[in-house]
Amino acid sequence: EVQLVESGGGSVQVGGSLKLSCAASGDTPKTNMGWFRQAPGKEREWVVTLRTGSGSTAYADSVKGRFAISQDNAKNTVYLQMNNLNPDDTATYYCAADFLLLRDRAFGGYWGRGTQVTVS
């Protein structure tokens, strides 16, 4: 089993940046890690996937060019660098591992408890 703990959320002004971290412990994620977000009253939204074997990435169109995922294998941590933030990015951000993504919806996997990002 994989345990995930997010950190780095906070409040930022429009156009600002934040860097989220997701530390994994327990078992090592076998297939992927990624980030999702959920704004109040909205469904959970896929943000980015990192395939742990190849290191390849895929981003949602809404964040492409502004967000970047990276990993530090030595620390078993993935990061989400978020730049040029706007109010639509306000949400609770969740880290996930070993999930199945179908039509941008996640199934299964391991999930953190989330970290709040507020852009105003």
Description:
It contains no helices and 13 strands. It has 120 residues and is mainly β.
Order of helices and strands: EEEEEEEEEEEEE
Count of DSSP E strands? 13
Percent strand equals over 45%
Q: Which whole number gives the mean pLDDT?
A: 96
Q: What's this model, at a glance?
A:
The protein is an all-beta fold and 120 residues long.
Features:
globular, mainly beta, 4-stranded antiparallel β-sheet, 120 residues
How is the topology of this model organized?
Blueprint: E1 2-7, E2 10-12, E3 18-26, E4 32-38, E5 45-51, E6 57-59, E7 67-72, E8 77-82, E9 91-97, E10 100-102, E11 105-107, E12 110-111, E13 115-119
Parallel strand pairs: 2-13
Antiparallel strand pairs: 1-3, 3-8, 4-5, 4-9, 5-6, 7-8, 9-12, 9-13, 10-11
